[in-house]
């Protein structure tokens, strides 16, 4: 019997059948994948509203072999996104040890070091971890918990990672127990209850093969609570995008006759955007464990 990955309920209902045609490979899990609306079968929990792809739970091997050459092309914009999250964290925890889980090529770690944190990361993709290593950024190969990484941090960041794992609750519990007394976890994930998600339905850009868990505010808060954490800040993180990236994203929602090319001088312009379709929740460990 399949259980909800958050609350353990067996009351799961199929809400979207799988619609990928080809055999899944690491490429299907590319960070820059733009096959929006293509997913494994999605089941909704009747108790906590969490959506999960129960049939696609074994995804780690895909990430270990992941190579995504377009990812580095967006380094500047991704670094400035990381910095925005860190600026929120800085208000709550201005210094100390920081761990970034799912660190990619170390963009957030690099920003955190520049801001004065003793930062390190963990990344399962060998290719991304090597990119970090070439930049002399302390990113360990593997998953969390990691034997080379201590279990005491003042900030742990989990940015657009929790929707990729099949045991999100264990991951959050491990984070909670690895926080220092006043430590803070920063969790960012798409919000399936957002207006953008409701308007676009199953075509929403966050519905993609790599995302195997989908939270709304209720299920995310419930997961954090069960993991022994309490929120201290909840906000909608804004991102920055190049016009090129935004247009590529918007194109697939346009009728064919409107899909014209963009003049090249516009393409690389970077603009701040907030679709208000993700949550950023900063939380601290509760002294008392959840019942
Ligand atoms: Zn549930």
| Class based on secondary structure composition and strand pairing | alpha/beta
- List of distinct ligands in this structure: zinc ion
Q: Tell me the radius of gyration.
A: 19 Å
Oligomer: single chain
SSE succession: EEEHHHEHEHEEHEHEHEEHHEE
- Percentage of β-strand residues: 15-25%
Write a concise synopsis of the structure shown:
This protein is α/β, with parallel strands linked by helices. Helix content is 29%, strand content 24%. The chain has helices at residues 60-64, 69-73, 75-92, 107-114, 126-134, 168-177, 195-200, 217-226, 243-251, 264-267; strands spanning 12-16, 42-45, 51-52, 97-101, 118-123, 139-141, 153-159, 179-190, 213-214, 229-235, 239-242, 270-273, 278-285.
Would you write up a description of this structure?
The model has no long low-confidence stretch (mean pLDDT 91). The strands form three sheets. A seven-stranded mixed β-sheet has the order 6-5-4-7-8-13-10, with helices on both faces. Strands 1-2-3-9 form a four-stranded antiparallel β-sheet, with no helix packed on it. It has a two-stranded antiparallel sheet with strand order 11-12. The chain is globular. It contains ten helices and 13 strands. It has 291 residues and is of the alpha/beta class. The structure holds zinc ion. Zinc ion binds next to loops.
């Amino acid at each position: 019997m399949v259980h909800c990955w958050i609350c353990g309920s067996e009351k799961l209902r199929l809400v979207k059948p799988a619609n990928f045609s080809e055999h899944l490979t690491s490429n299907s899990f590319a960070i820059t994948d733009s096959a929006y609306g293509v997913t494994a079968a999605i089941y909704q929990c009747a108790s906590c509203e969490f959506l999960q792809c129960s049939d696609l739970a074994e995804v780690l091997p895909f990430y270990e072999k992941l190579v995504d050459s377009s990812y580095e092309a967006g380094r500047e914009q991704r670094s400035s996104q990381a910095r925005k999250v860190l600026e929120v964290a800085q208000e709550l925890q201005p210094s100390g040890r920081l761990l970034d889980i799912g660190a990619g090529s170390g963009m957030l770690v690099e920003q955190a070091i520049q801001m004065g944190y003793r930062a390190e990361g963990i990344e399962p993709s060998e290719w991304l971890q090597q990119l970090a290593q070439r930049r002399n950024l302390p990113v360990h190969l593997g998953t969390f918990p990691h034997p080379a990484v201590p279990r005491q941090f003042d900030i742990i960041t989990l940015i657009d990672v929790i929707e990729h794992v099949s045991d999100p609750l264990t991951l959050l519990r491990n984070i909670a127990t690895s926080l220092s007394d006043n430590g803070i976890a920063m969790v960012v994930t798409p919000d399936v209850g957002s207006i953008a998600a409701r308007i676009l339905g199953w075509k929403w850009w966050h519905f993609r093969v790599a995302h195997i868990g989908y939270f709304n505010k209720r299920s995310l808060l419930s997961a954090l609570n069960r993991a022994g954490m309490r929120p201290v800040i909840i906000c909608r993180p804004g991102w920055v995008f190049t016009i090129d990236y935004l247009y590529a994203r918007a194109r697939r929602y346009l009728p064919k006759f409107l899909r014209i090319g963009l003049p090249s001088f516009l393409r690389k312009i970077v603009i701040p955007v907030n679709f208000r379709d993700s949550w950023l929740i900063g939380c601290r460990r509760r002294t008392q464990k959840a019942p």
